[in-house]
Structure formats: C-alpha cells, structure tokens
From TrEMBL:
It comes from the Bacteria. The modification 4-aspartylphosphate is found at D61. Residues 10-121 form the Response regulatory domain. The keyword Phosphoprotein applies. Keywords: Phosphoprotein. The lineage of its organism: Bacteria, Pseudomonadati, Pseudomonadota, Alphaproteobacteria, Rhodobacterales. This is Response regulator.
Length: 121
C-alpha cells in the first residue's frame, strides 16, 4: 500500500526512545509534514500541546519512562486532535476512555504510523 500524502500537516511526536523518535520525525518530514517535537517527557508534551494546539495529529508513546502519557492524550482529546498510541502494553492496561484510539504495538513499522495518520479525520 502506498504511503498517504501528509504534506503540510502539523504532527506532534511524543516518544522517549531517541532512535525511534528521530526515525519517525525524518519520515514525516520527508512526506512534507511539520513535526512538533519530538518530545520525550510528559511535561514537554503538555507544554507543547498548550502552546501549539491546534495541530493536525499526534503519535503518542504511552510509556514515557517516568510517566504515562495519558494526561497528554486527555488534552489531545479535549482539543479534538486525532492521535494514535504506540505501546508495548497489552490492551487491558489502557484505560477504557481510550478504547477507540488506534494502538500500534511496539516494535512497529513506521510506515504503519504514516498510513494511520493519513486516515485520521
């Protein structure tokens, strides 16, 4: 399946694994996105959402080392910003309020994230 065109979209990347964040940032930029971040902590994510919203979408790693990203996800939902989760967690570990949010299990193919963002409303 061909990658969808994301040209001109502003996408927030919340990911604490440097190599993964860097690879995702590069791929999104190659497709013409403006990447916000990447940020690797909950505090950075919350600050960026407050200062940059609205934007077109986000990729959110659930576990940010010392904190879970759920407060950032709640803020994204409150702003009506579509996002997806990346995680190694089992679905049972994710709060019910996020039941409709797409989750990609780590390790994942960056192309799957690109495809998912292209389908976001």
């Amino acid at each position: 399946m061909a990658d969808p065109s994301l040209r001109g979209l502003r996408i927030l990347v919340i990911e604490d694994e440097y190599l993964l964040a860097n690879a995702l940032e590069g791929r999104l930029q190659d497709l013409g996105c403006e990447v916000l971040g990447p940020v690797g902590s909950l505090d950075e994510a919350l600050a960026l959402i407050r200062s940059e919203a609205p934007f077109d979408g986000a990729v959110v790693d659930i576990n940010l080392g010392r904190a879970m990203a759920y407060p950032a996800a709640d803020m994204l939902m409150g702003h009506g910003i579509p996002f997806l989760f990346t995680t190694g967690y089992d679905d049972s570990m994710i709060p019910d309020r996020f039941g409709s949010i797409l989750r990609l299990k780590k390790p994942f193919d960056i192309g799957r994230i690109v495809q998912a963002l292209g389908r976001a409303p």
